[in-house]
């Protein structure tokens, strides 16, 4: 199994169920790991793997698109990764909304996906 990932990508984005969340925006941290269908080889051909620049670009584009639910953001990232990079067998994703306002001290809310 070969996994490629990026940890704690930081974005300021305008996701949220409530209009105020979408207007004010919030800090998000995103971890994404992809598992390749093929085994690691000694190939120097970038087409035999997934370029982490492509992972970042897809994540950034989807984070830049305001949505009401973090689940929808996660789905969009996973769907784009799997549909544009056929070499990907599995995606593990963790999306954290930092400083979520719930009336008490909460460090972050989290959604995780694996599949």
What features would you describe in this structure?
InterPro entries: Dihydroneopterin_aldolase, FolB_dom, GTP-CH-I_C/QueF. It comes from Portibacter lacus. It is an enzyme of class 4 (lyase). One of its GO terms (molecular function) is dihydroneopterin aldolase activity. Keywords: Folate biosynthesis, Lyase. It is built from 3 helices and 4 strands, in the order βαβααββ. Strands 1-2-3-4 form a 4-stranded antiparallel β-sheet. The protein has one domain: GTP Cyclohydrolase I, domain 2, CATH 3.30.1130.10. Helices cover 29% and strands 35% of the residues. With 115 residues, the protein is an alpha+beta fold. It is elongated.
Tally of DSSP helical segments: 3
Radius of gyration: 15 Å
CATH topology: the name is GTP Cyclohydrolase I, domain 2
The SSE string, one letter per element, is EHEHHEE
Task: Please give the number of β-strands.
Answer: 4
Beta fraction: 25-35%
Mean pLDDT level: 93
Pathway: Cofactor biosynthesis; tetrahydrofolate biosynthesis; 2-amino-4-hydroxy-6-hydroxymethyl-7,8-dihydropteridine diphosphate from 7,8-dihydroneopterin triphosphate: step 3/4
Domain Dihydroneopterin aldolase/epimerase: 4-113
InterPro entries: Dihydroneopterin_aldolase, FolB_dom, GTP-CH-I_C/QueF
EC number: 4.1.2.25
Secondary-structure topology with pairs:
Blueprint: E1 3-13, H1 19-24, E2 26-36, H2 52-63, H3 70-84, E3 88-98, E4 108-114
């Amino acid at each position: 199994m070969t996994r490629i990932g990026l940890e704690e990508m930081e974005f300021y984005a305008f996701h949220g169920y409530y209009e105020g969340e979408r207007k004010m925006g919030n800090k998000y941290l995103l971890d994404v790991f992809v598992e390749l269908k093929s085994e690691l080889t000694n190939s120097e051909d970038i087409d035999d793997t997934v370029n982490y620049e492509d992972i970042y670009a897809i994540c950034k584009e989807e984070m830049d698109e305001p949505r009401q639910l973090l689940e929808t953001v996660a789905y969009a990232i996973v769907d784009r990764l799997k549909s544009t990079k056929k070499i990907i067998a599995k995606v593990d994703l963790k999306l954290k909304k930092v400083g979520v306002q719930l009336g008490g001290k909460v460090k972050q809310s989290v959604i995780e996906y694996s599949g």
